[in-house]
Amino acid sequence: MYTIVAASQKGGSGKTTLSGHLAVEAERAGTGPVALIDTDPQGSLAQWWNARAAPTPHFVKAGLMNLGEVLSELRNAGFRLAVIDTPPAITASISQVVAFADLVIVPTRPSPHDLRAVGATVDIVDRRGKPLIFVVNAAMMRARITGETAVALSQHGTVAPVTVHNRVDFAASMVDGRTVGEVVPDSASAREISELWIYIQHRLSRLTRDPKLLPDVQPQHFSVGSLLTAEGETRVFDDDASMDETDQAPAAEVIPLPKAYAGPERRQNTAPAMRFGGPERRGHTFGRRISDPAQPSDGTGGRK
How far is CA 157 from CA 121, 142, 150, 151, 246, in A? Predict the structure, then answer.
């Protein structure tokens, strides 16, 4: 059994909605049985599942103290996948859950506040030595900041080549415990979730070296291409992708980038001004100044 953890210290990033949608999509794709676990004290994922008529995915009650035992029982019961939602802001709780992850998904809205806050989540995942995928979530169509977000995140980890856009049908479908794939299966939202799961499934297969996880069908393109034009390009590498002497990325890892943001001058941080701060901020993780002394974390991603 494999475990996927949705984690972000920033509240409102869309962890719960994404967890429910991915669990249902995994079942629909034949990766089940799938178990959902909600470790957020607010219990939003549990409330959504209680309103759900379909028996799958299964919901399992677990706390931080017995999470390892519950996962072991699920493995013995024949479950293939566990999807765990985590609470925001509580560093210790997130870290305990991430310890059980085979893959961590970090949903991030395309906004300066989310980009600045995501560094704390990355630190937690790094300390646990777990692989992560950033998912640009709740994005506006053709918004310039969406492309900037993908580029900024790509400097700190793998970015899923599927952008989930901000549409009403995501929230509307969850009112009665369903997902967009069940309510409006032919919608653009349903297609994004389907393609995102295919990418995650393929990625998890590579990380765990389990060929049984490989999807039967893989799209030739991903929805991120609808936001970014092919006038320029930036490379986003998998952490386990092999590079040759010319430092070229595999074809599947090349994400197109608008011409306005292409070129070595942006990648080398030599531009005189940036949207989210000066050059000294651009060169450091999510807005940390080079002149700032190291500060201990207060557990919420900020500084004491």
Answer: 12, 23, 10, 10, 21
All structural domains of the chain: 2-224 (3.40.50.300)
Instruction: Read off the amino acid at residue 137.
Output: N
Spatial separation of the C-alpha atoms in residues 99 and 292, rounded to whole Å = 30
Two tokens, residue 273: 């001004």
Q: Give how far Cα 240 sits from Cα of 204, 210, 248, 280, Å.
A: 12, 15, 14, 29
Nearest to 81 by CA among 45, 18, 35, 17: 35
| pTM of this structure | 0.73
- Per the model's pLDDT, the better-predicted residue between 13 and 264 turns out to be 13
Nearest to 285 by CA among 94, 161, 118, 130: 118
* pLDDT at position 6: 97
pLDDT at 215: 80
Phi, psi angles (nearest 5°) of residue 242: -85, 140
**Residues near 186 by beta carbon (within 8 Å), at least 6 away in sequence:** none
Give how far the C-alpha of residue 212 lies from the chain's centroid of Cα atoms, to the nearest Å.
22
Residue 154: how many CB atoms within 10 A of its CB? 18
| 264/113: higher pLDDT | 113
Task: Give the tokens for residue 143.
Answer: 């918004």
Q: What is the pLDDT of residue 196?
A: 96
